[in-house]
């Protein structure tokens, strides 16, 4: 359009310029308004998404609670209990350990509340650990004791140093026991996790670390720590004819060997009259693969304190393991991805842990018969309908998600096929899942331990749990979940039996190899022939073992 044409249309150059400017201003204002609207909309969408995730998790729990049968007695997860009834302390950096305060979103609220005395004791311990933890002035001063031949009395902190033995389950139950001993004796617990346990757990105590510094002077001796060690407490007693009063000056450190193969001198640790001497030793280096907490309840000088800490005797490990062990962010990612993919929408979650110690003595076919017999006898899963190919429509259909934790894939494949090939008699939908199958336990492998820790936590999210006899892996899962499991007796004689999985009497782990005498008796009595206390019983899955139960 030329100038002459513009003039004929009555559009002057000055007027045209004003129109262009007005148009640009209007366009700019509209653009800014759209950005503001879009931003507020996104904020609303974000808030809705967060509310939806929380609501969906709560809704899943509510649906599970509505469809619970007699096998699940936990209350609904209606209110998120981030601090687990006062067990945990507030104030941690949540991003550094997301699971610490978010694990309660995936689990039901535990009906087992920690005593106010236990919560108070833990807060006091946290202050002690902060004051005496690695590289503090008190730690450095106590470290100087190690260069002396005897205690000089200048240290104001005492320590128990935990060192690893055997697999992940053994390590967790023995660490929990060591922490309980530290609580009872006013010691600080430090742990030597090693490279294969890196990034498995979060730090449990606020504003400090429980990791033993790599430059600890005795670290190079830990690997050879075994029964009969020259610096062990057992050897010290043996050298002095089991009379500790003849030792004039306590040493700056002693080894406590409390693993399954300790000898009769090592086991004298559990005698009450020897505890007074140990109180004067600044450094106790402890090695164990056992849940030795039950025997601490039989030491008279500890009993009153333990009664106040744990009026409910079968919750000792339940509280200790939830307090100490939180999955690292890497492990928590594995857990939550599996949970959201396979478990979150299920009405009921069932965990099955299969641990076979000798595959030749326990053939796959026989173990599978035992598992299916367990499901049917205890009515943990419905039977399949051999006459039909399609289940009739039902408004009350229940979805059940079965998680199988095993080193081997065969049990998962067989059970999955049972519920894939035929419908269930009541129309329930059964999904069967297995996070991994490593084929063999891999000692010293960091990724293997992270995956194992993830699977323990996944099992602990179950409403119903079946664990294998003697398995510490299963013990940890039942403790985290607050579950009283059915104990699968893995057959070793080539055939299954008619009692495949009796119910455990408590959710406490078993102390497999305790001393065979009772403290208060003038004559030694075997623990497998007499109950030394109302809350101590012989284990269901280990005739030599003892466990804590309610009176």
TrEMBL record:
Main location: Golgi
GO biological process, one term: cell wall organization
Localization of this protein: Golgi apparatus, Golgi stack membrane
Top-level EC class as recorded in UniProt: transferase
Keyword Iron-sulfur recorded: no
Entry keyword Glycosyltransferase: yes
Record-stated family: Belongs to the glycosyltransferase 37 family.
Annotated function: May be involved in cell wall biosynthesis.
Name under which the protein is recorded: Fucosyltransferase
């Amino acid at each position: 359009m030329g100038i002459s044409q513009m003039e004929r249309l009555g559009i002057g150059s000055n007027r045209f310029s004003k129109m262009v400017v007005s148009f640009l201003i209007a366009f700019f204002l509209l653009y800014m308004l759209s950005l503001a609207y879009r931003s507020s909309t996104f904020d609303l969408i974000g808030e809705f998404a967060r509310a939806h995730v929380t609501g969906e998790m709560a809704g899943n729990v509510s649906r599970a609670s509505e469809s619970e049968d007699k096998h699940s007695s936990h209350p609904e997860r209606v209110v998120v209990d981030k601090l687990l009834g006062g067990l945990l302390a507030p104030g941690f950096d949540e991003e550094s350990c997301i699971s610490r305060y978010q694990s309660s979103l995936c689990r039901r609220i535990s009906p087992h509340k920690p005593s106010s005395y236990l919560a108070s004791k833990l807060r006091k311990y946290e202050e002690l650990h902060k004051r005496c933890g690695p590289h503090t002035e008190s730690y450095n001063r106590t470290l100087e004791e190690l260069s002396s031949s005897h205690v000089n009395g200048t240290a104001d902190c005492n320590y128990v140093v935990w060192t690893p033995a055997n697999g992940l389950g053994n390590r967790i139950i023995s660490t929990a026991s060591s922490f309980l001993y530290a609580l009872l004796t006013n010691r600080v617990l430090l742990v030597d996790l090693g490279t294969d346990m890196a990034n498995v757990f979060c730090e449990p105590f606020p504003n400090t670390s429980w990791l033993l510094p790599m430059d600890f002077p005795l670290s190079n001796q830990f690997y050879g720590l075994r029964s009969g060690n020259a610096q062990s407490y057992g050897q010290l007693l043996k050298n002095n004819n089991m009379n500790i009063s003849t030792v004039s000056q306590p040493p700056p450190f002693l080894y406590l060997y409390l693993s399954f193969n300790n000898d009769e001198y090592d086991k004298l640790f559990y005698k009450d009259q020897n505890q007074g001497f140990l109180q004067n030793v600044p450094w106790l280096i402890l090695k164990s693969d056992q849940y030795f907490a039950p025997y601490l309840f039989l030491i008279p000088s500890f009993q009153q304190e333990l009664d106040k800490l744990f009026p409910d005797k079968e919750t000792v490990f339940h509280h200790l393991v939830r307090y100490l062990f939180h999955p690292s962010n890497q492990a928590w990612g594995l857990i939550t991805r599996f949970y959201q993919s396979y478990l979150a929408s299920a009405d009921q979650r069932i965990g099955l842990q299969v641990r076979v110690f000798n595959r030749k003595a326990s053939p796959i076919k026989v173990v599978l018969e035992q598992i299916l017999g367990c499901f049917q006898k205890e009515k943990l899963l419905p039977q399949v309908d051999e006459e039909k190919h399609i289940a009739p429509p039902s408004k009350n259909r229940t979805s059940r998600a079965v998680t199988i934790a095993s080193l081997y894939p065969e049990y998962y494949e067989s059970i999955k096929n049972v519920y894939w090939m035929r419908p269930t008699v009541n129309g329930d939908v059964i999904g069967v899942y297995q996070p991994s199958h490593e084929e063999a336990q891999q000692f010293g492998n960091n990724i293997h331990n992270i995956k194992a820790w993830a699977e323990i936590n996944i099992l602990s999210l179950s409403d119903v749990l079946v664990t294998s006899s003697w398995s510490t892996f299963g013990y940890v899962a039942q403790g985290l979940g607050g579950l009283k499991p059915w104990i699968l007796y893995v057959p070793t004689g080539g055939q299954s039996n008619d009692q495949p999985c009796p119910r455990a009497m408590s959710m406490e782990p078993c102390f497999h190899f305790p001393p065979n005498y009772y403290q208060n008796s003038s004559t030694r009595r075997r623990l497998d022939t007499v109950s030394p206390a109302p809350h101590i019983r012989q284990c269901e899955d280990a005739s030599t073992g003892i466990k804590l139960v309610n009176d």
